[in-house]
Amino acid sequence: MKQYPQLIIAIDGYSSTGKSSFAKLIAEKLGYIHLDSGALYRAVTLHGLRNGTIADGKIDADALVATLPGLEVSQRPDTYIGEENVEGLIRQMEVSSYVSPVSAIAAVRTFVDDNLHKMASGGGVVMDGRDIGTTVFPNADLKIFMQADDLVRAMRRYKETTDPGTTFIDVLNNLRDRDRRDSTREVSPLRKADDAIVLDNTCMTMEDELNWLFTLLEEKYGFEF
Ligand code: DC
Questions:
Q1: Is residue 3 part of a domain?
Q2: Which atom, in ligand 1's list, is nearest to the CA of 100?
Q3: Which end of the chain is flanked by fewer CB atoms within 10 Å, N or C?
Q4: In a domain, 88, yes or no
Q5: Is the Cβ atom of 42 under 6 angstroms away from ligand 1?
Q6: Which residue range is the domain that position 148 belongs to?
Q7: C-beta separation of 145 from 201 below 8 A
Q8: Which atom, in ligand 1's list, is nearest to the CA of 181?
Q9: What is the pTM of this model?
Q10: 38 lines ligand 1 (CB under 6 A)
Q11: What are the tens digits of pLDDT across the range 78-133?
């Protein structure tokens, strides 16, 4: 594969704007590593559900944090806990319903950020999340902030749902609730970095998005495709 400049690309934005799918495709096209930070918050949540520190609508934050030193997470590119591939399990509704409050725990954020920094050493990385351009990699070479109409986002997520009991309204409510929580929490809230470029993909296909990005990389970063 052709060797492209090794940038750090940070993609942030609202839930279900297609950040991870876009980041994954960029990584494939450029030969970069893709890191999905939301998946790591989801893996921590699954871990808490399994060890009982998250149960019956409550999160015992101190107890959960105390178990983090024994938690080994990685992305290869699927998400793993130890040697177990948990990529499917972390997308289930039960994990989605707890992941926002879990991600608001400061020590959980430190745990995830440390793992991201370890996995990203070396550059040639595209990383997606909520605070990559503001907190995790404030010096990223390129920052993209993704947004889209929330009904369109909910429909995209609903089509991917595998839980038979989940309705469109469940998905829409979960998405709106997470947007609100993620934007208003105290620690590292979701917000556009001042130097991020907005990509509103309400009416765009993935191919449109890729063309948009490639033009940007050619014009501003000297890429040759
Ligand atoms: O991208 P996602 O929906 O899989 O992310 C799951 C949750 O993780 C989301 O509700 C907010 C949180 N998150 C975060 O707080 N910071 C990040 N960098 C990525 C995700």
A1: no
A2: 10
A3: N
A4: yes
A5: yes
A6: 8-216
A7: no
A8: 10
A9: 0.92
A10: yes
A11: 999 999 999 999 999 899 999 999 999 999 999 999 999 998 887 899 999 999 99
